[in-house]
Amino acid sequence: xxxxxxxNIWQCGPFALKHALVTLGVLKDEREISxxxxxxxxxxxDDLQLGRAARKFDCAPQAVGFADGLDERPQDDR
Length: 78
Description:
By secondary structure, the protein is mainly α.
């Protein structure tokens, strides 16, 4: 168990979570993460599935972005 390239194109989410967990000191196998997330070879893993798997390891992901797709960050007043 370590950091190495993912073996296929449909496990990018579980591999990203695996590497994030490593930074928190949690070592988990990507196959276990994939199983918990419900990853499928045809459609991979969506953000909800990945969040569910992260919570199983006491890791609460934070949503980032804007719901309407517009960038509404405050303007710099310089």
